[in-house]
Amino acid sequence: MSFSISSEQKQVLQIVSFTILNDSTIENRFSQEGRRWKKAMRTIRTQQGWLRTLWGRDMNTSHKIDIFITWTDIQAAESFETSPTFSALLSGINISPITAHCITAHAPLSPHGPIEQVTLFFPTALTPEQQQFFEQQLQHYTARTPHDEIQSTVHGWTVGPVGRGGESARGCMVFFEWGSLDRMFEVKRDVGSLFNNCFVPLRDEAERGARTALYTQLRDGGKERSLACVVM
């Protein structure tokens, strides 16, 4: 079934992060970790309000895994995060505590080309006016981005504060879908690219810095469910 949330309708994207053993074989469905991983993906798909699961290994730190779960609303995401199911989900797979953050977004995350996730950290005292101004700058940049630089962009603000350097921060997550890794490196080397002249200065406006993750491609965690099926 198709992913039927329109681009005008906000959706909730929950990012679940953890680390595994560097040589863990979760991609091998016949391994012990692979069987546990398959069960975890199946468990997520059975939750009320679930729409889609994507996941990826961070190329910068291959034992860091992020799961991206799309929910119908924030209540469904929070209900899952506070349930006993969540705390037991990755038993035997993760070697670090699980962390989860939610953002609201206006578009679905792409499962296709390489994905770069940039998290920008601002003071929690960021005013609505300051947030709106930054949002306008970001939208202006993404509207001008040539398709041969970046295929698609998704962004959203974290629901509630996130930890950054022992302090709480307001987080804005931006996801870039690049045509290829080679193209990404080419654009970043080009001092005249729109990315370097527009997004990089925006990124540097984040008073508490930024963090980047890169995935060769996000993988599907199971057959997606259309919004129509959920609300019927």
Q: For the report, how would you describe the main beta sheet?
A: 10 strands, antiparallel
**SSE order:** EHEEHHEEHEEEHHEEH
How would you classify the helix and strand content by structural class? alpha+beta
Which CATH top level class of the largest domain fits?
Answer: Alpha Beta
Poorly predicted regions are 1-8, 226-232
Number of helices: 7
Rg value: 18 Å
What do we call the CATH topology of the largest domain? Alpha-Beta Plaits
SS strand fraction: 25-35%
Description:
The chain has helices at residues 32-45, 74-81, 84-88, 128-144, 181-189, 194-203, 227-231; strands spanning 11-19, 50-58, 61-71, 99-105, 115-123, 150-158, 162-164, 167-178, 210-215, 219-220. By secondary structure, the protein is of the alpha+beta class. The protein folds into two domains: 11-110, Alpha-Beta Plaits (2-Layer Sandwich), CATH 3.30.70.100; 115-215, Alpha-Beta Plaits (2-Layer Sandwich). Strands 1, 2, 3, 4, 5, 6, 7, 8, 9 and 10 form a ten-stranded antiparallel beta sheet that branches. The longest helix is centred in the middle third of the chain and has 17 residues, at 128-144.
